[in-house]
Amino acid sequence: MPSAAERLVRDRQLVFDLCLCALVTLVTTGYSLAVGERALGLASLVITLPLLVRRAFPAAAFVMMTAGCLFALAVSEMPSAAGIVSVPIMIYTLARWSPRTLARLGWAVGVVGSFLGPARWAFAGRGLTDVTVFMVSVVACLAVVSGTYVVGRKLRESEDSAGRQQRSEAERRRLLESEQEQRDRAATVDERNRIARELHDIVAHSLSVIVVQAEGGRALAARHPERAGEVLGTIAETGREALTETRRILGVLRDGRGEASTAYGPQPGLADIADLVRRTSDRAELATFGTPPPLSPAVGLTAYRVVQESLTNVLKHAGPEARARVVVACTPDAVEIEVADDGGGETAPVSDGQGHGLRGMAERVNLHEGELSAGPGPNGGFVVRAWIPYERAAETQPDLPRVAAW
C-alpha cells in the first residue's frame, strides 16, 4: 500500500498531466480547426490525449500517439503542431520512466518520424527551396527528439544511481549493525565463560577442601579430639571465602558494573597463593623464587586460579595420601608456576566439556599469551606447568634464573 507521501506525489503528477494535456489539446486542436483542417484537428486530438496517461500506461500511450501522427501525415500536408509538441514529451517520458527497450523503441520511432514528417511537409511543391526546408526540418526534429531522449535517460540513470547508493548504504548499515550484534553476542559469551570458570574454580576447590578436611577431621576427632576445632575452623574459613567470592561474581551479574567486587573485597592474586596452599591441605607445600613485580589484577588472578585448580585436581584425583609441591617463580619476563604431586592418579583430570578443568586453565593462560602444559610426571604423579608473561619495567626487575625443573 503506497504511503501518504507517495500518494501525494502521484496526485500532483496526475494534476500536472491533466493540465498539460488540456493545454496542448486546446492549442493544437483549436489551431487546426481555425485553419480549416478538421481532419488534422481530429488527428491532433488523438495525438495529445495520450499525454494524460503517459506515466500510468506508457506503452499504450506511445502506440496511440504514433497512430495519431501517422493519421496526421495521411490526411494533411501541414505540419502537425500536436505532433511537434507531444512527441518530444512522450519520448522524454519513455526515456525517464520506462524500461530501456521501450525507451529506445520510442527514440527510434521518433527518428523515423523526423524524416517522414519533414518529407511530407517540404516536398509538396517539389522545389529546391523545399529541399532546404526538408534538411532544416530534419535536423531540428532530430535535435529535439534526441535531446529529450538524452535528458530523460540521464535523469533516469541519476535516479537509479542514487537508489543504488541508498540501498548500498542501507545494506552497509545493516551489516554494521549485524557485526555489532555479533560482537555483543561474542562478548556476552566470553563473559559467561569467564564467570563460569570463576564459579567452577571457587566452588570446586572450596568443596574439595571442605570434603577433605571433613573426612580428615572425622578421623582426627576420634584420636585427638582437642584438634577437631582446627579442622572445623579451616572448613569455616574456606566456606566463608567461597561465599564471599561467589557473592562478588553474582554481584557483577546483577549490576553489570563490577561494583560488587569492591563491596566484598578485591580479587585474589599472587600474594594470596600462600594462604591458598595452607588452607587447601597440610600435604601441600609452597616454594617461591624471586620478588614479584607489580602485576595487573588479571595476571595475578590467573596465577591464583591455576594453582587453585591444580590443587583441586590433586585432591580429587591424586589419592588420599598424595603430597603436592607448588613452585611459583617470578622471572624477569613472566610468572612461572609448577604444581606436581606424587599421587597414584594415572590419567589427567577430565574436562566436562564446558571450558572448566584443564581446559579452563588453558583458556585463562592463553588470554595472556602464555603457555600451559599438563601430564604425568617423570617419577609418577601429575604435573601442571604454566608460564604467564607480564609487562615490566626492565630496569627495576632483578635478573632471576628460571626454575631448574623447567
From TrEMBL:
Residue ranges occupied by any Histidine kinase/HSP90-like ATPase domain in the UniProt entry: 298-392
E.C. numbers: 2.7.13.3
Catalytic activity: ATP + protein L-histidine = ADP + protein N-phospho-L-histidine
Alphabetically ordered keywords of this record: ATP-binding, Kinase, Membrane, Nucleotide-binding, Phosphoprotein, Transferase, Transmembrane, Transmembrane helix, Two-component regulatory system
Mitochondrion in keyword set: no
Region of interest: Disordered: 160-188
Protein name stated in the entry: histidine kinase
